[in-house]
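Researcher: Let's try something more involved. This one mixes different molecule types, so please make sure each is placed in the same coordinate frame as the others.
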Amino acid sequence: MAEYLFGFAFLAYAGAAVAYAADVRRSGPAGRIATWGVRLGWLFQTALLVDQAARADGFPWTTWAGSLNLFVWLVVSVYLVWGCRTRYRLLGLAVVPLAAALLVIARLGGGTGVETSSDYSTAFLIVHVGLLTFAFAAFTLAAALSALYLWQEQRLKSHRPAALLGRAPSLLTLETLAGRTIAVALPALTAGIVVGLVRLRSDKAPVDALMAVTLGTWAVYGSYLVLRYEAGWHGRRAAYLALAGFALVAVARLGLQVSHFS
Amino acid sequence: MTLTLVGLSHQGTPVAVRERAFVPLPQAAEVAAGLAEAGEAVCLSTCNRTELYLVGPDAEVRALDALVTVSGLPPDELRPVVYRLTDEAAALHLFRVAAGLDSLVPGEGEVLGQVRSAFEAGATGPVLDRLFRQALHAGKKVRAETAIAESPASVSAAAAALVQQVFGQLDGCRVLLVGAGHVAELAARSLVARGARIAYVANRSPHRAVELAGRFRSQGIAIDGVAGVLGEVDVVVSSTGSPGRVLERTDIDAALGSRKGRPLFLIDLAVPRDLDPAIHELDDCYLYDIDDLESVVASSLAGRRREAARAEAIVAEEAEGFREWQASREVVPAIASLRAHAEEIRAAELERVRGRLSTSDQEVVESITTRIVEKLLHLPTVRLKEAAAGADGGSYAQAVRHLFGLGDERE
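Model: All components are placed in one shared frame. Result:
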């Protein structure tokens, strides 16, 4: 069952990615096909997660691969909130291929199967892993928005904007959305870190590389919000900073295949 | 009944003739009503075309007479420029017009509204009602399924689209107009139409600035006060006749601090240019001059022409749909007559034996004969409808009438 659900979810995301690419070349029905592909893929992945949860003993996404699976689902969920609008199809081209690729990595790492139970309580794992994964998913989306901002800005600066007109969100919209997404995600990251640190203290365990990178991520996005709202950092500088933060998210998600809880 | 189109357009008719043949909407309704006394009529008149769509006898002659009347031109002068199309060709033409494929700028949006107005003012019956509804559908479909109408087609529209690409919704977006000439006013109107507000108008001649500012309910300022308001506006549109620069990079640089990272979009429509090109190098500043805007328009028009091929396919499909519908109208009366004829025979034969049957037997026979007639006529009905979609629907209808002696009257 899980194999089929993974397969259908992957095919739907991959198909949507191809359709997004076709839509960028020539807008039309391909864009709508892409949107429905993402929705369908999300439904299959949701069913996969439900199946995992039903079969697991406790919180089923404790390994890095398992949490990567959850992470992909959250990224697509957040994207679906507004990404299906016509003007955000270019954003789909940044998000959906990434989602398809990460889902395959999660599958190869065993994150779509049933994991062994953890020594940690399910409530702790839901709060800690859930909050951190949600924050990382939101940061990923903010990075995609920032990348789209930089690409668009570069097209406008080089006086080659024709491909954008009427087909992409405005610079101000992208920047505002990226800022708001980070503003929502940072408290979640903070709460997740605090929960983890409390547990770490009670267990008297050492800080590992994943924790260090996560703290670094918190520092970068914290600086982003301070600089944006206090020092008036907008535009290119803010976009680069959001991407720098995402580099740490990528390291935390993919570079360090650490699992604290198995 | 034949659909006939008689008209003239920018393709082959000089403006001197087109302006004479132009029919304002209220008068178009009168023209259509007059022509519809012998059938159906719609008069579509825009700055680029005047076309009469008619269904009825002597349509071509009556349409030409109507064009002579409205234009006041002699028939010999009109005949060489007027085109005449019938049925499928006429439908395809209207669908292309509604889709903007017959316009000067491919995909322009205004024509769809003009087709709708002409339809509403027309005296339509079943054929023209169906034709114009399908034309409006085709026009919308082309715009929804292709990118033909997505990009700007004029310098002022390109400027407004670029501003939107930076700011999104222009509600609350404040504009500074530098220069109070016609070009600046056109660009300003395009921005205002999208929700922007003209905050200041600056001009070397203060009374002209105040006059234009009054029209936009904004404030007129002296041209040397421009640098002082840069912190308050989002868009600068400059179009003066000044031989030197109106704003230098240093002016903008000085204003950026107070903008707190909010972008500034500058449109320089003047030749020689009013704004220092180095402004474009500043962060959060976007400067487009007339050449940049014209190249955006050129590339946008090229894109529209590429999309036109896809639009043509959609329009051809819709025209085929109309042709099938029109062809089916030829066989519908024949089918109706055939069914009525069969029912008449069935009812008559049943009546002859009714007295010899009990009530329950009558019900059984009634039911059986009805089913026999239905089954016998089902396949011929389907085949006739299929034939109607092809080219020989009329011949089939004639054959059915002949074989069953149904008469030639059509509804």
